[in-house]
Amino acid sequence: MSDTATAGPGAIRPTPPIRPEYERIPEPIAGSSIERRVSLPQRLWQYAWLRKALILIFLAVMWEIVARLQGNDLLLPSFTATLQAFFEDIGNGIIPGRAANSVDILVKGYVAGVVLAFVLTSLAVSSQLGRDFLSTLTSMLNPLPPIALLPLGLLWFGLGQGSLIFVLIHSVLWPLALNMYTGFTSVPETLRMTGRNYGLRGLRYVFLILVPAALPSIIAGLKIGWAFAWRTLIAAELVFGASSGRGGVGWYIFQNRNELYTDRVFAGLMTVILLGLLVENVLFRQLERRTILKWGMTR
Amino acid sequence: MDGTSTASVGNTSHSAQTPLLAVEGVTLEYVAPGRIVRATQNVSFDIWEADRFILLGASGCGKSTLLKAVGGFIAPSEGQVLLDGRPVTGPGPDRVVVFQEFDQLPLWKTVRENVAFPVRVSGRLGRKEALERADHYLEKVGLSRFAEAYPNALSGGMKQRVAIARALAMEPRVLLMDEPFAALDALTRRKMQEELLALWEDVRFTLLFVTHSIEEALAVGNRIALLSPHPGRMRAEINSHEWDLQSGGSSEFQSAATRIHRLLFDETPGATESDHE
Predict the structure, then answer these.
(1) With an 8 Å Cβ cutoff, are A198 and B106 in contact?
(2) How does pLDDT run across A215-238, given as a tens digit for each residue?
(3) Core-most of A69, B55, B215, B253, by most CB within 10 Å?
């Protein structure tokens, strides 16, 4: 047959032996269950908050050691001294008041920036001109430091919340719009067609299909925007003092640096860090857990 | 026929004597960078109520593009698609598509919500009735146990079942399937084909099914349109109602498969003639 045609001359093609067939019932399952419990240390290690707490403790210990070795409270107060100053000023209500002022302005500017970013990106996904508008504006204004706009803001809106909100919007809007737009464009074509197949159009299409499908990018943009807003606010207060009359955390840091209370400067920085951790690990984490983690869009 | 006006004849005799879906001389083009490519040319076929109509052809014959035109996602540059005598102008819930890709299910909705969501947003039923209908069709595809699961927890075959349940729950005039089982493994595919035929026995929906598998076409369809590639043109329409998944080994089935293979791949003078029209 074809054996001789395909094999080379003289080569012997090995042929497997024909073995008997058999049928059998699968053997009983070993043990009582096919699942096994994970050991306690492994289970503990699966908690992100525990791992992060360990990292924080490690950093605090390192700080304490370096500060003790250096031994100059004016340059680097120890972790315990900072903690003491921190709780003192929480107790007398200075830090909570300042933080409340900062967060108040921050939230106003942030929300306005998010709304504007949403409007811009919705325009960008629905028309070619909107797309060009967004990409041009983003490439022009995204590299511009918000602080550089503050003098202009002070000129236009005066020494009040207005000028701070103006720069906050600027710092939130562009990175968020960029992320949101990237998210919208990366929604799979099949899913878009599915949405149109349902008969969805316009805003309903954006809210019911595009926004949830692009949520990983949108949340990333929200996080970046939040961090940018914090930086801008603190920097604005450090550079221009209490521009809103009621000072925030930046103003607190600025004042205490002038009076060489370095431990209070660190306490102010700690406030910023703690608020950042709180928002990141409570607000954004919860948002992620209820949405993109639950839906399996991210790990 | 002199006494009656032609218009009224056209309207009243619809359901019984005219096809449900008519594709009439459809030419489709798509824009590639710097040029416009013709995907199909002057394609016509009719689909009748409860047909399992197959579009079969090698890759590049524009069968998926044709399905998208029927779905209303692409407008023909010539010819038209008529559903119940009315031209198709855009996507709509009366022609629901089951895609090949597993990412056609919104990940942010449970299986149950996925099936109920389009029924609700297309304004067919209220929230409660839509969920009841979703449960009904999920039971039909055997996924009642997974109603509260999210799509990322499902296997490929189960995702396609959800997509089929979702399409059926819309109770569309035509169910459009774009190689729905092509991304599945062979065993799951076979099982899904069986289930699809059982569902058709049960519900008697009208199906337009795109595939590149001759065996799948013969087993699933009752009529097969063969398309020749580059651009897609009609090659033949073949009846396949006598075959099912059990007839795979029979010699008649084999000869039908061979005939299709010959029609699809042998060079014929007829193929060049159609260019001259």
Answers:
(1) no
(2) 999 999 999 999 999 888 888 888
(3) B55
